[in-house]
Design brief:
Blueprint (H helix, E strand, L loop, with lengths): L6 E10 L5 E4 L6 E4 L7 H7 L7 E6 L13 E5 L14 E6 L2 E10 L3 E5 L9 E12 L2 H6 L13
Antiparallel strand pairs: 1-2, 1-3, 1-9, 4-9, 5-8, 6-7, 7-8
The structure holds zinc ion.
């Protein structure tokens, strides 16, 4: 059996940036179980996993357009500081949940000045080449219910509200 649409694959993965720093990894934890063909993963990684078999190991570099997108300069916004009324000290690197036209978004503070705060609403991995090392551990057919929901269910069935 190989990975194709409607298969559930179990993988170990490590994600590094251009500099080789580990950003995310399943090593030492439960492996990742996902449903192929349902955009559970970034498109570039899903594409490379297509056709792979148990035991296969691959190293993939996913460019931004197949990852989390290019950095969008329009998602940088300068806001008046008094919009952050309830917060004593605003610092670079702080994250806030904001309601945007595209739904809820995490925004990061990238600059703080006397009267203004600049936030970045891009995904933290936007504009980056993503270096994935992946090992395929298991492949199985998805259940009807998983296909309907578009994601994998664990031992106890669907653990989410729909
Ligand atoms: Zn579900």
């Amino acid at each position: 059996m190989t990975i194709s649409a409607k298969k559930v694959a179990t993988i170990h993965y490590t994600l590094k940036n251009e500099q080789g720093e580990v950003l995310d990894s399943s090593e030492g934890q439960e492996p990742l179980v996902y449903l192929q063909g349902y955009q559970n993963l970034v498109p570039g990684l899903e594409k490379e996993l297509e056709g792979k078999a148990v035991g296969d190991k691959l190293s993939v570099v996913v460019p931004p357009e197949e990852g989390y997108g290019e950095t969008d300069p329009q998602l940088f916004q300068e806001l008046p500081k008094d919009m952050f009324g309830g917060i004593d000290q605003i610092e670079v690197g702080m994250e806030f949940h904001a309601e945007t036209a595209d739904g809820p978004q995490v925004v990061e503070v990238v600059e703080v000045e006397e009267d203004t705060v600049t936030i970045n609403g891009n995904h933290p991995l936007a504009g980056m080449d993503l270096h994935f090392d992946v090992e395929v551990l298991e492949i199985r057919d998805a259940t009807e219910e998983e296909l309907q929901h578009g994601h994998v269910h664990g031992e106890g069935g669907c653990g989410h509200e729909h």
